[in-house]
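WARN retry 2 of 3 for item q-0093 after timeout on previous attempt; input resubmitted unchanged.
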Amino acid sequence: MDRIDRKLLNLLQADAARTNADLAEEVGLSPSSCLRRIRRLKATGVIDRTVAILNPARAGKGLKAVVTVELERHGEQQTRRFLALVENEPAVVQAYSVSGETDVVLMLRLSGMEEFDGLCERLFRNETNVARFYTMFVIRTGKETTAIRLAP
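OK item q-0093 returned
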């Protein structure tokens, strides 16, 4: 990846809806060369996917929560089983197996407490191998981005 690729990636992360002609002009390439680079970045997996990023509050998911989960039984198989369970939950927007005292960290986007209560019933009670979980509701967001800034 060279300087032009990194500049293209930074521009696309800011606004993937920009036209190829606009991107090409910005990085100093012909439109055909620019398009070839973007196709190569997609083919090699550097660009994983192109998505629309919604405004959570306007989409009815204004409540954000961070949940730490401690599993009762530890091990790779138990962690994978729990992560497979959370994969089917629409409110879970990020799920991480982590090191330390906590086994899993979940980021949730919710419509309200009723949705949270239902999620708790499905994920943290009954036979889900959860020993305990702690929930932090986000009061104010200091920074939230999907961009991975690349040095020029």
